[in-house]
């Protein structure tokens, strides 16, 4: 499973860093379509505060974030 990387468009240091997987540049006030973040299985692993979370799309086309 590939993991994506989000970067802030106004931060050139992060934008220039190379990482495996997808790279999506976003601004502070922008929105991103969930299909751009989720893999073909409808899942995205997120690391935050030393914890790992799973964001996934349900069969009813809703999003669930679980620890």
From TrEMBL:
Q: Write down the InterPro entries for this protein, in alphabetical order.
A: Hemin_uptake_protein_HemP
Q: Which Pfam families match?
A: hemP
Protein name in UniProt: Hemin uptake protein
């Amino acid at each position: 499973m590939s993991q994506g990387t989000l970067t802030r468009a106004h931060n050139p240091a992060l934008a220039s860093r190379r990482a495996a997987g997808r790279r999506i540049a976003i601004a502070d006030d922008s929105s991103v379509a969930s299909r751009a973040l989720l893999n073909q299985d409808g899942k995205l692993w997120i690391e935050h505060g030393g914890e790992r979370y799973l964001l996934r799309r349900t069969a009813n086309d809703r999003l669930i974030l679980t620890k």
